[in-house]
## 1
Amino acid sequence: MIEFEKTIKQSKILNPLKNFEEDTITFEYRADPLTGRNTTIIRGMLNYVSRFLTSDAELLTTLVEKTKANCPFCPENVRTKTPMFPREFLAEGRILVGDAVVVPNLLGHAEQSVLAILSREHHLKLEDFTPKLLFDGFKGGVEYLKRLSEVDASVRFPVFVFNYLTPAGSSIFHPHMQILARDRPFYLVNLLIDNSKAYYEKYGASYWHDIVTKEKNAERYLFEVNGVEWLVPFAPLRGLNEAQAIVKGKSNLKELNNGEWLGLAEGISRILKFYHAQGYTSFNIAIMSGPLGEHLDYFDVNLRVISRPGIQQFCFTDAWAVPYLLWDGEAVEEPERFAERAKALFKGT
Ligand SMILES: [Zn+2]
């Protein structure tokens, strides 16, 4: 049923770094087992781009200080500088859970676009994203979704996304998450739902159940927390230290219980600790959901997390033409290598 298809290709060059000796470069084409989308694994690319992935500490400190001056999300400003929900939507205007503050976005990415401000601190290192801080943000997001469903049940497709720091596309430094909800799914969510349905009809089983069964305790498998399975995908979407989480048997965000939210929070916290240990400072996350208000036996809530380049004068980006304009996947190292490195760190902590 689930096939891991890959093809190895090689090319030869006379390498100036090795006194023009003949050198072989290896590329691996991998098909995503659900969508068929190609991801090219480029061995050695992580090493090649690694100098762009760490941050200039002095520049980062300067930017943290500069952006703190007028930050609308810092505790002293949040009540005067962030939007409020209209009174008819929420009498209190904002949703508060622990340190998380949920407010509407000034200008977002969907018809319903909301922010969860996650911490009182203006800047967090990736090792400082605690499970509690993430959990409170998630709970605030779910409270918003509950109210949204009461007001407009047609807005059925939510995603939770994180863009942390400017290399990840965030215009505001202060740690926050976005909750976007629409009456139509995002492109990838739609593709995953459609292909999951086709898989279910063909094989009489859930792709998500099957992929977890196949990967459990194998080389790309990371860990499990409260029914949330963490692994490294066979054919990553973006391939920069990319991990995936699958919430077993839950098809939309409103079905998750506290243990499962904590499973996502705990897993993210561990992955971010690994990123921090590599010297990274920036990341993206997307949590994808099936439609609210109905359970799909063939789809599970799932998450992708990737690291992004560092903050440097050079302004390097990994949003280059192949993934960004040609929609092909690229991974800068073999996913199995990344899983091995991550597991070694998790074992040591
Ligand atoms: Zn701030």
Note: The two ends are 36 Å apart (CA to CA).
## 2
Amino acid sequence: MKPARSFASDNNAGVHPKVLQAISSANQGHVVGYGDDPYTAAAVGKFKQQFGSDIDVFMVFNGTAANTLGLKAMTESYQAVICTDAAHIYTDECGAPEKFTGCKLIPITTTDGKLTVESVRHAYHGVGDQHHVQPRAISITQVTEMGTVYTPKEVRDLARFAHQHDMLLHMDGARIANAAVSLGLTLREATRDLGVDVLSFGGTKNGAMGAEAVVFFDRKLCRDFLYVRKQGMQLASKMRFIAVQFEALLTNDLWRKNAEHANRMAALLKREVSKIRQVRIVYKVEANGVFAQIPRQAIAKLQKRYFFYVWNEEEAVVRWMC
Ligand SMILES: Cc1ncc(COP(=O)(O)O)c(C=O)c1O
């Protein structure tokens, strides 16, 4: 039988063969657990090649943990994180960021998945007032949850605003590879060079089996992160098998090839469905997601063949991830 294919999520896809091969190749003999091993050192070296040697990187199992623990390292419980009302940290992490950081998340309505300096300025208040939570971090998602991509200027402006107001910029980069490719930038140019302080670096949606990382460009913030990660139940004992997934993705630009392919497939899908009169593309297709309004009666029929999620029930908008 032909293997099933869906447009539900990048996570419905399998693992890149080179990643599986790397896991298999690392499955030799014994090495010390918990990250004190040559495979982890090699993967950290690959991150440093991408982002510069003066960074710290901590691998975790999933994106919710990368976001939650990264934000925990940036905040105190009386502070607040400003994000969009579509942010994964706000809508799809079952309150983990609130539980672990103790912080209030301040959601800002968005029509394209993005925060702007203007919208953040609106939410930035109560500073110095003992009755108010104190804004401490701006969290942006790149690629956004609506498949759009912040321009370098948009990220830089948000970073500048954050830093001018004693705040930090967090980036949920579950799809940072797709964003970098879309912008024609290196991973570093798309993050650190724009002023991001802490990055959740996504491996899973880029072909890994389950590998995410918290990358600190502001190293002061990770002084206690070893303990934060362990207390957050995200310290892998057999760390080598997470590490080699990153090593594979960050070798010979595999991360880039995978992201280019996914983005190209979304562009193709957009091009083809746009030929259908009843289909309306609702957000700019800038990475690997296509959001379309389609006839309501077509949804269930299509889902039987190629499963996908409905993004907005009322408006019959569906999300097709490549
Ligand atoms: C924007 C975004 N951030 C983070 C994640 C990571 O989530 P998970 O905890 O499922 O790995 C996802 C996955 O769906 C996502 O779309």
Note: Residues 154 and 301 are 39 Å apart (CA to CA).
